[in-house]
Design a protein that fits this description.
single chain; five-stranded mixed β-sheet; disordered N terminus
Length: about 190
């Protein structure tokens, strides 16, 4: 595992971000020197998340609980991320608070936002393996694609599976099932 030292300014940024109270329907994330605020998701986003969550729930290990929009914190690498869906141990309830140590998450699921796709496609592909999240499922309704990242080591994912809506995604342990994507819906095409 790669060891990281968090600079003092990153620790201060994380501390500051945790004091913010975003407007209703907004969420706050921290990546490096940036505080990222995002608006709430669209109905298509929510529908796609439901399609995925129902399948994961059916294959959820008994010691994990689903959680939407939970702050996953990695102070050692200066990251605070908030995936659309994650599965975390029931034991984190005993920790209290609003944050969960990121390395306890079994997966992070993201539905790409049309207003800020780089956050999911670049920032989180970079941050999630650094945070110790073993699997990252990325669904892009703009393009109708699905990407599954796994096997993090040395701060990067070493395995990537890519497909399109309609393909079957081979989800690894601890879920170990084939995710059907035929019911996912694309965002409407916007013409200039």
């Amino acid at each position: 595992m790669v060891e990281f030292q968090i600079p003092e300014r990153h620790a201060q940024l994380l501390e500051y971000a945790q004091t913010l109270t975003p407007p209703s329907g907004w969420k706050v994330e921290v990546s490096g020197d940036e505080i990222i605020m995002m608006a709430g998701p669209s109905v298509i986003h929510q529908r796609n998340l439901l399609v995925v969550r129902e399948q994961f729930d059916a294959h959820r290990p008994g010691d994990l609980m689903p959680s939407e929009n939970t702050d996953l914190a990695s102070p050692n690498v200066g990251k605070l991320r908030n995936p659309d869906l994650t599965y975390i141990p029931f034991s984190v309830v005993g920790l209290g608070g609003n944050e969960v140590p990121a390395e306890l998450a079994a997966i992070a699921v993201e539905i790409v936002s049309p207003s800020n796709p780089e956050n999911d496609l670049v920032g989180k592909v970079r941050d999630y393996p650094l945070m110790g999240i073993p699997v990252y499922l990325l669904i892009d309704p703009r393009e109708g694609t699905v990407t599954l990242y796994s096997e993090p080591a040395d701060g990067v994912y070493h395995r990537q599976w890519s497909g399109k809506f309609g393909d079957i995604v081979p989800v690894p342990e601890p879920f170990a099932f084939d995710l059907a994507t035929s019911e996912l819906v694309r965002y409407p095409v916007v013409r200039d």
